[in-house]
Amino acid sequence: MDPEVSLMLHCDPSQALEEHQMHVEVSDRFNRQRFPEIEQHIEAIWTDRVTKEPWLFNGAKFRLHSALLALTENGPMGEQALQNTTRLRHDEGEHSESTRNKSSGGLAKREQPCVVKLQLGLTCYKDYLGTNWSREAEKLQSHGRNECLDPQAFLSQPLGVGAVLATADGDVVLLRRSQKVAEAAGLLDIPGGHPEPKMVCPGVSEEDICVELLQGKERAVVSEIFSSVCAEVSDEVNVPLASLSKPLFMGIALNHTSAGRPSAEFYVRCTLTTEEVRDFYRRGGPEANESTDILFLSREKMLQLNERSPLWSEMCPSAKGAVLLYQRVMPE
Fold first, then answer.
1. Which tens digits make up the pLDDT trace of 245-303?
2. In terms of DSSP bridges, do strands 172-177 and 261-269 run parallel, antiparallel, or are they unpaired?
3. What is the rounded CA–CA span in Å between residue 61 and residue 58?
4. Pair 288, 238: CB distance under 8 Å
5. Which of 1, 118, 196, 299 yields a CA-CA distance of 20 to 30 A from 202?
């Protein structure tokens, strides 16, 4: 597999999950581990970046600690209802398929309902720049492996979201990233971004958002994860929200160019034709500055993409992860 990306977790073929099938646990236990040296390093990097780019601001993000894919008995999900469970941390992603198949008895399709449970803490953009995006990331992973048996323990690990967006004609949308963006400039990507804790805590400033304010609002957190997918599609592709289906969760991919940063990938259908989507995109939207062109791939070409395809080298890790999940889950 491409060293830039791996799959942490994926649903079974044709078994992508709806919003009610995702559950979250929010706790301080899932925050990044700290020690003095790295805190000083984070502050130094942030001070330098803000000096050079004074428009930057430090926003709160959800931190993914681990993910759980499970079968449930009929009825509401509870800890006692979990069966044939697979719990994965970021370092276990590359082995997720064999582990998952072993725990589920190797069945391609489950007869019982399936759910995914995410263990979430809080992090921020400043911590991301100073850990995952830092030149010290490998040292931090080694320290985490030695001290916590978890290479990601000291990393920010903000949870991203991405959308495999299919038009009414069955074509999948790719965007050519601008040369001015900080990451993966000029490469092909899918629409995506991050769910925002501030949307679950209206009226609270970014710096005052804490885990305690999110506890008891777990369903609102799930709602924000799913709604942020469509919001990002609408902002980046400039299509109306009303034209988008409810997102279906396919799985989680890890971007190893940023030390295993996780992104939950979804499938979204659009009622507009390929040409209509192209027209809306060319009109420009709220985030038109993030991309310079739109491309469309047929379903057949999406299923055929691999490391030997010429287009593969033009794709950023998040897009590669979404393609791999789409090929395995085939959400249509």
1. 999 999 999 999 999 999 999 999 999 999 999 999 999 989 989 999 999 999 999 99
2. unpaired
3. 10
4. yes
5. 118
Q: How confident is residue 111, by pLDDT bands cut at 50, 70 and 90?
A: low
β-bridge mates for residue 118, sequence order: 24, 67
Cβ–Cβ under 8 Å, residues 329 and 12: yes
Which residues lie below 8 Å from residue 252, measured CB to CB, with a gap of 6+? 7, 8, 9, 10, 64, 67, 93, 262, 263, 264, 265
Q: Any idea which residue has 């804490």 for tokens?
A: 210
- Largest Cα–Cα distance of the chain, in whole Å? 56
| E strands in the chain | 5-10, 22-26, 60-72, 82-89, 114-124, 160-166, 172-177, 188-189, 192-193, 248-255, 261-269, 291-297
Higher pLDDT: 329 or 110? It is 329
> CB count, 10 Å around CB of 135?
8
Q: What is the pLDDT of residue 95?
A: 41
pLDDT of 35 reads: 92
